[in-house]
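anyone seen this seq b4? input:
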Amino acid sequence: MNASAIPEVSVVIPAKNEAENLAGLIAEIHAAMAGRNYEIIVVDDGSTDDTARLLAEWSKTDPRLVYHRHPASLGRSAAVYTATRIAQGIHVVTLDGDGQNNPIYLPVMIDRLADPAVGLVAGQRLGRKDTWSKRWASKIANAVRGWFLGDGTRDTGCGLKAFRRDAFLDLPYFETMHRFLPALFIADGWVIDHVDVVDRPRGHGTSKYGNLERLLIGIPDLFGVAWIRRRRRRNPMALARKDGNLPKG
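predicted toks r here
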């Protein structure tokens, strides 16, 4: 990418063994983001397929494409955190590497961040195309989380999210933080916005993380996030933007 054209938006894709899905997804992102100043960051989370080779090849001819590789799988939160650390954009938008998140929603989610009080815009899936067991596990997890944390979000598992890079990096990092972003942003004093999105079937391959694993790991983290919300003090940046004392961005 031309050094004089620092991107305003960083589109982040955590990917593990998604070699068959990434080419089409990247093309769709380019189409959806046409006319905007952006970069695409793909974090290869310890893939054992051709993901690393393909990303290295594509990045030679695509100046907007940046990739980083985790030598071992560290999980979605780690991949998103890594990408956000190296991102150049003021705003970051995320979507999963399996193609189920449609990039057509990226522009409207980015535009919602024009409100200086909004720190996070979360996609909420309609018509989910996952397996019955995955939908069942997700429904239970979201119901318990919503009741316990009161974050006003019915679907925190949706990979489509847009947020302010500086606000995200101010949050406490832990292994499954991606499942609790609405509650964490609220704890820092930010307003959360939501966009309904239509889910798509996975193009190729299978989900890389088990349903039982999601539920079991999420339970202790739920109590941890509740503790953070009680003890966390509001982020001065969030409060200043709400009061109109800082520029938008």
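The first strand starts at residue 9 and ends at 15. Strands lie at 9-15, 38-45, 65-70, 91-94, 118-126, 161-164, 191-198. kinda curious what u guys think
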